[in-house]
Amino acid sequence: MSKAIYTKPHHFRGFGPLNPQFPRFPRFGHPDYYSVFLRIMKQWQNLKSLKRSGCGHDPARVDATEEGQLAVLCPACPQFGKNVFDDLTDVSPNQCWLYSLFLAIDTNFHLKHHFVSNYIKDPRLSCGWGYFVEEQQYKAYLHDHADKAQEKSACISHNAVNMADTKAFKGLTATGVGSIVCTQHDMWLANGVSDLQKGEKYINMDYIVFSALSTLSTTPIVNLSYDIACQWHKKLWQCVSTALPLQLQPNCMQTTFNFVPKFHIATHIPACQTNFSFNWTPGVGCTDGEAPEHGWVDINHIASSMKEMGPGSCRDILDDHFGDWN
Fold this sequence. Notes:
Strand content: 5-15%
Largest sheet: 5 strands, mixed
Order of helices and strands: HHHEEHHEEEHEHHEHHHHH
Distance between the termini: 16 Å
Radius of gyration: 21 Å
Number of strands: 7
Shape: globular
Strand order of the largest sheet: 5-4-1-6-7
Helix content: 25-40%
């Protein structure tokens, strides 16, 4: 199985050698076991994730699993109460930057998902337990703010901003995936991934970002890297305070800085190249903010197969591959 995740072949390629006497397409009276094989793989992946996260012997059973509990946390980033102090009361203010988080936001439009099946026929086995946000709350939030128009870019003509309401979505349940990752160590964050229904809209990205940050509220400084940070940050706190659910509201004691990744910043106007540059900010080292691109290269290998899966299987498979990457 570990080899299958590393090489990312389609399940069909592994099915033939396992059962050469049973062809994929029934003939001569042989039954079709391929659908059974897919169901077995989905259940096996879910059980292994629960086991690795220590949920296998929970007296409260699997239903007591909390959101993000199956995600593999970054071992190098500050996890207060785990790999660093419970708080920074004994740390000098001049040294607090050592305990800051470096996170990067990005989207991937290769990970489309076609309108195939539904959650009744193909449910998720670990909804919200891993890297994807909890689906029902996310969809309810989007429904409540569906009429919110995207503000046009005042920088260069960012397609991600200006075309967010016009991206083709016919026949698709998702035009891509948005995520937030640890930019220092290339690790996917718990509850930091979700689908984009119609381009890279701020309402989607706000929910994804603060869903991941809700478990990191004790971190004093968060450095956010985003290729359209110069536009996204303008009305961010206004939208967050009025639109996001209460459980995702940020910690008012947390300091947030916004940057544009070094590879992308050259295309921005001169004002953005000064105000959102890593090079002109103390306490960030040689960070480039381009970490999501590394992860997308790896996950894009399964884009062609996952877009034809049912909605539950698609997200469970992506969760499994994100976990393997971490």
